[in-house]
Design a protein that fits this description.
The chain contains 15 helices and 14 strands. By secondary structure, the protein is α+β, with helices and mostly antiparallel strands. The strands form four sheets. A four-stranded antiparallel β-sheet has the order 3-5-13-14. The chain has a four-stranded mixed β-sheet with strand order 4-12-9-6. The longest helix is centred in the middle third of the chain and has 20 residues.
Length: 396
């Protein structure tokens, strides 16, 4: 590598480091390498009491022959997190980073990194202290820089910003969602679901909460409903399809079910919008805006601390220019949960699977079935459990 190439590589790593530090999910993920209970650690050290929705149990043993007794311990809350000086937050996070538990992350495998990411994303935004943790780590993001730099330089993360692999995209077809694989009928699915979503949005706009009110329980994912039969991921981390990694709890059945796993080859002329950073998502929504305030004005108000209005891509309009939209792992980490201003409101990427491409047109040139996955997808948190449910077909 000559000096020019080396400088370019260093700039790329620095830019990716900044992307992770600027996003709620990126900082959450970095925090797991520093301290798996980082929220509890910061709450305790900064006098914020217990993380909302959690309790600490202490088991007491009075000696031989006695029955162990447990008691609930609550940390006393001394102040609101917004009253904590940034210097105190930086000092607490600096101490956690200084313990060096993250220094071996460069030796983790692709599967280990992605499985750890799935554990973070599964309940992202729904923990009692999530928004507080995002606020605290935003105040002290620079303290996480060495961790972020080590992560983006990790060999196992080298593909996180790669464009979609057109030669082998894996598709899951869950039982009840049709028997055939491939992308046949995707254009009709886009039209049908967009009409339904627009109708639901109009109805929802009639009962919007007033500015400043909390209104949780709305639709919180950015992926369109038709994605369940039209999006694909790559085979990563040993999984036949990365979508099986349990990153979010949308689309997969809640009961025992079967999914056919197939491989798609996509034409070289397929037009794919690549989402590798927050600005890419913002640009897509800016060019093809669709108001979704009537359906998405819930968790997003809380997560972004803004009232909207909210926008997502108009997928029918997008389809006139692109055949698919691919969110890279890096784009997912740096965009998920981040409220971005667009037009007179905001947009947010959430409820997506990393490396997933939502296809808007049938651009598949080949499809072949690889096997079936049988099990309860929502209960498979460990990837070894996911793999145990995989039944590949015998080679022909």
């Amino acid at each position: 590598m000559d000096d020019v190439d080396r400088k370019t590589a260093e700039q790329t790593l620095a830019e990716r480091t900044d992307l992770l530090l600027g996003a709620p999910l990126g900082r959450d993920f970095l925090g797991t390498f520093v301290d798996f209970a980082l929220d509890h650690t910061l709450f305790a050290e900064l006098g914020l009491g217990d993380v909302p929705g959690t309790l600490m149990f202490v088991v007491e043993d009075d000696g031989p022959g006695s029955e162990p007794r447990s008691r609930t311990v609550r940390r006393r809350k001394r102040r609101d997190w917004r009253d904590v000086p940034a210097g105190e937050v930086r000092a607490a996070l600096r101490d956690a980073v200084g313990r060096g538990e993250w220094r071996g992350l460069g030796e983790l495998s692709e599967a280990e990194l992605m499985e750890q990411l799935s554990g973070v994303t599964e309940g992202f935004g729904f923990g009692g202290g999530d928004t507080v943790l995002w606020g605290l780590t935003a105040l002290a993001a620079e303290e996480l820089r060495p961790v972020a730099a080590a992560l983006v330089a990790s060999p196992a993360a080298s593909w996180w910003w790669d464009p979609v692999d057109r030669s082998d995209q894996r598709q899951l077809i869950w039982a009840g969602n049709g028997d055939g694989g491939g992308l046949a009928g995707v254009e009709e699915a886009v039209r049908r679901d967009m009409a339904r979503e627009r109708s639901a949005n109009e109805k929802g706009r009639r009962r919007l909460p007033r500015p400043g009110e909390r209104s949780l329980g709305a639709t919180w994912w950015s992926a369109p409903d038709f994605a369940t039969g039209t999006w694909t991921t790559g085979p990563r981390g040993g999984l036949p399809a990365l979508e099986l990694g349990h990153f979010i709890d949308t689309f997969a059945p809640f009961e025992e079910s079967t999914a056919t796993v197939g491989s798609l080859t996509v034409g070289e002329r397929a037009r794919v919008a690549e989402i590798g950073r927050p600005h890419d998502w913002l640009d897509l929504v800016s060019r093809f805006p669709r108001d979704v305030s009537g359906t998405h004005n819930g968790e997003w108000r809380d997560w972004g601390d803004v009232d909207g209005p909210w926008y997502l891509p108009d997928w029918e309009a997008v389809a006139e220019h692109y055949d698919g939209v691919h969110v890279t792992v890096g784009g997912y980490l740096s965009s998920c949960g981040l409220a971005q201003p667009v037009h007179d409101g905001c947009t947010m990427l959430a409820g997506w699977v990393p490396d997933a491409t939502v296809w808007l047109r049938d651009v598949a040139t080949e499809y072949r079935r690889l096997g079936v996955w049988r099990g309860a997808a929502q209960e498979c948190g460990e990837w070894e459990d996911v793999l145990a449910c995989w039944e590949p077909y015998a080679p022909e």
